[in-house]
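2024-03-11 09:14:02 INFO worker-7 job=invfold-0412 stage=load source=structure_tokens
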């Protein structure tokens, strides 16, 4: 008689979401017999307030779904065909470690490229034992530039990454500018605060080429052309100075470079900026007047505006606004961008190894590097990332992955598009199957969460697998932190306030930064630059930007490719994570006027193309875009389009003015109907 497994009751356990999102939700997970039944929000993180996004509610399907990788496998078919044979961990790791050791012994550590990015915001799953392994092998270093590189450069240069307005403090603002961010999908917990502020009489302004959900509720929407935020912000700065609204005394006490900024903004009249941006001059002037006259005034600056050739300067100009107009010093006044830096926690301290002095590879150029690096890259190790789906110049990435003399290892919980091109696929746990220490980059919370179920199948957590690879390649040293607890302790111990954080985490599963959860800028927190001042024209940025800081580089326009393609976030996936659950075809959105000019009707099959590649899908004709702009979302998988190329095939691998960032929203394309 078959033995019947004991049936236990469903249990509710606490966790925390470490996925790449500002909100860092605290979770309430229902589990039974090693399975996740449901994922919901808890109130441990006050910002979560008991609810979470629709996509993470589907996480049980991700954990236990058909795309889950449950055992190690090696390729048996042609590259990219997704044909594999099951092997043991021992065999898989033996092969990978053997090749690593061989390359390192031959003095070819720089033939190894570790590639990781946004799979987890947790401190334990990146830069710990993985950094130990790759540093000691002398592997290439990766510049993690695919996101936030230009905005980080700007925020570091101007403010040393000062902590921003707390999400919940937006209720106190009288004017809120939502600039290049779409929180209705990309960080939903700020939205109730924005709507509450509006109810209390605040004005809401949205600066976005698309008519997003918030733009539809806004008092003013500025639907500028992508990449033109810089002139728009400079024209507001110019007017604030010229009209006598500048906070001269504040600037004298707290800023350098205000005269230089004033000079650089001087030629940007509302008319000139409006002409470049394709909007009404009166709209920009309206925004400038409201901003100057309102207090508290808040800017929620996002990442949509950084992803073009002017992106770094654009973010710098937007961040300069509260300084110039004197909006700091009150609750609900100032700005929020990323708050990731406030923790001053560095996972690398747990690696116990300095970064090597090897060559640094800009991850936006990985396609090119795979095809042309000298010496050639022989071993690509992908974890916490899905580069075929998320990097620019997808065709180059694909051709790189097809190289017969490249050993590609993909370590992921699911069979991603990239994994299908791997030689060795390793099964990773999801965050519900491992311990994690994570923080938000919006919400001011640090959380430690224990695994809520055992690893699914043979999957293993990152820190364990990299520690094992350290041993197998002979680079491990005795006594180094390896377990999740030891790594977390090592990371916390390196921080002066770490002991207090450790205590708080032990007691309440939540820790706040030293200044607490709701800082006021220029009351509780100050610029973290060396002299604690705002640097409006920092020299380093001025030197780096090809046209100087705040120097605008116009799109010369192209008769062949007249449409600007945007690819921001949607509410279906987080970057490409969870994309295995979005099986239906995804359309490109196009304005009725652009569609009519091309003979395209709603639902038609179309070809989107430029010199970088092409993608095929259906058209959705909608007025939620301005004419001249089309939209095909970020994070698509090959099954979402016809033929497998996604919008990233159309994204150039040109770089932003600051930080070597990606130009996802600087793609120019043409679209034509497919008539078959
Ligand atoms: N649901 C969901 N949430 C996510 C993510 C996700 O993929 N899905 N991704 C996470 C990650 S990795 C990040 S970095 C954040 C990103 O979060 P957001 O800052 O919201 O970034 P995007 O979605 O890239 O773009 C935001 C908006 O910028 C607009 N935009 C595009 N180009 C320009 C421009 O030139 N100027 C201006 N002013 N606006 C422009 C787009 O139309 C879009 O509405 O969200 C995180 N949260
Ligand atoms: N066209 C276009 N492309 C974009 C953008 C855009 O705006 N437009 N935005 C960019 C942005 S903002 C970002 S941040 C990047 C993100 O790009 P990526 O870093 O590639 O992020 P994801 O697509 O989320 O892939 C993360 C992978 O990590 C895996 N993972 C999750 N947890 C773990 C773990 O614990 N261990 C291991 N080994 N793996 C794990 C997930 O299953 C997933 O496959 O994409 C960029 N790509
Ligand atoms: Mo991102």
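2024-03-11 09:14:09 INFO worker-7 stage=emit residues=676
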């Amino acid at each position: 008689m078959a033995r019947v497994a004991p049936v236990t009751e469903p249990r509710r356990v606490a966790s925390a979401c470490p996925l790449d999102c500002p909100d860092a939700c605290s979770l309430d997970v229902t589990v039974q017999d090693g399975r996740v039944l449901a994922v919901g929000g808890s109130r441990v993180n006050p910002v979560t307030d008991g609810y979470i996004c629709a996509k993470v509610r589907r996480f049980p399907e991700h954990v236990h779904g058909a795309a889950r990788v449950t055992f190690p496998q090696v390729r048996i078919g042609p590259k990219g065909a997704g044909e594999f044979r099951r092997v043991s961990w021992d065999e898989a790791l033996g092969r990978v470690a053997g090749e690593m050791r061989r390359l390192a012994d031959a003095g070819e550590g720089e033939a190894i490229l570790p590639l990781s990015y946004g799979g987890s915001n947790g401190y334990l799953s990146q830069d710990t034992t993985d950094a130990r392994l790759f540093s000691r092998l002398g592997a290439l270093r990766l510049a993690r530039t695919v996101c936030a590189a230009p905005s980080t450069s700007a925020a570091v240069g101007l403010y040393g990454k000062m902590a921003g307005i707390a999400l919940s403090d937006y209720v106190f603002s009288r004017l809120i500018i939502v600039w290049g961010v779409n929180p209705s999908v990309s960080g939903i917990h700020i939205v109730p605060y924005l709507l509450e502020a509006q109810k209390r009489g605040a004005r809401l302004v949205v600066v976005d080429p698309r008519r997003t959900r918030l733009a539809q509720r806004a008092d003013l929407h500025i639907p500028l052309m992508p990449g033109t935020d810089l002139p728009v912000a400079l024209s507001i700065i110019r007017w604030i100075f010229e009209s006598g609204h500048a906070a001269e005394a504040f600037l004298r006490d707290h800023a350098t470079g205000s005269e230089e900024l004033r000079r650089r903004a001087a030629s940007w009249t509302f008319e000139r900026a409006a002409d470049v941006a394709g909007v009404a001059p009166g709209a920009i002037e309206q925004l400038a007047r409201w901003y100057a006259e309102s207090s508290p005034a808040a800017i929620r600056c996002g990442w949509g505006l950084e992803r073009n050739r002017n992106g770094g300067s654009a973010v710098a100009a937007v961040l300069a606004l509260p300084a110039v107009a004197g909006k700091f010093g009150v609750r609900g006044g100032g700005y929020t961008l990323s708050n990731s830096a406030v923790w001053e926690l560095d996972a690398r301290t747990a690696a116990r190894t300095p970064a090597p002095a090897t060559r640094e590879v800009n991850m936006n150029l990985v396609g090119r590097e795979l095809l042309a690096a000298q010496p050639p890259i022989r071993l690509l190790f992908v974890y916490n990332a899905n580069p075929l789906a998320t990097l620019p110049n997808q065709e180059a990435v694909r051709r790189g992955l097809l190289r017969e003399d490249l050993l590609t290892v993909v370590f992921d919980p699911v069979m991603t598009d990239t994994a299908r091109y791997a030689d060795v696929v390793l099964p990773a746990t999801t965050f519900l199957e491992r311990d994690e220490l994570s923080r938000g980059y919006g919400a001011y919370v640090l959380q430690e969460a224990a695994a809520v179920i055992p690893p699914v199948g043979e999957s293993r957590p990152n820190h364990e697998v990299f520690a094992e690879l350290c041993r197998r390649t002979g680079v491990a040293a005795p006594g180094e932190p390896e377990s999740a607890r030891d790594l977390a302790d090592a990371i916390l111990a390196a921080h002066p306030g770490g002991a207090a954080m450790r205590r708080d985490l032990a007691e309440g599963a939540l820790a706040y930064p030293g200044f607490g959860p709701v800082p006021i800028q220029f009351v509780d927190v100050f610029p973290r630059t060396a002299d604690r001042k705002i640097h409006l024209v920092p020299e380093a940025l001025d030197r780096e930007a090809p046209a100087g800081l705040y120097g605008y580089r116009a799109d010369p326009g192209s008769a062949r490719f007249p449409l600007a393609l945007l690819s921001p976030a949607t509410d279906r996936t987080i970057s490409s994570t969870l994309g295995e659950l979005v099986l239906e075809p995804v359309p490109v959105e196009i304005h009725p006027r652009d569609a009519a000019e091309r003979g395209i009707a709603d639902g038609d099959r179309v070809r989107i193309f430029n010199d970088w590649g092409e993608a095929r899908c259906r058209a959705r004709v909608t007025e939620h875009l301005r004419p001249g702009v089309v939209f095909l979302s970020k994070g698509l998988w090959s099954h979402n389009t016809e033929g497998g190329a996604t919008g990233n095939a159309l994204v150039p691998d040109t770089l932003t003015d600051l930080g070597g960032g990606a130009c996802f929203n600087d793609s120019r394309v043409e679209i034509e109907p497919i008539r078959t």
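2024-03-11 09:14:09 INFO worker-7 stage=report msg="The first strand starts at residue 11 and ends at 16."
2024-03-11 09:14:10 INFO worker-7 job finished
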